[in-house]
Amino acid sequence: MTPVVLKASIDLPTSALDDISPVSRPLGEPVSIMRSKVAFKSPTDATTTGVWECTPGRWRRQVAEAEFSTFLSGRCTFTPDGGQTIAIEPGDSIYFHPNTNGEWNIIETVRKAYVILAKNAPPA
Question: Using CA atoms, how far apart are residues 105 and 41, in angstroms rounded to an integer?
Answer without folding.
Answer: 28
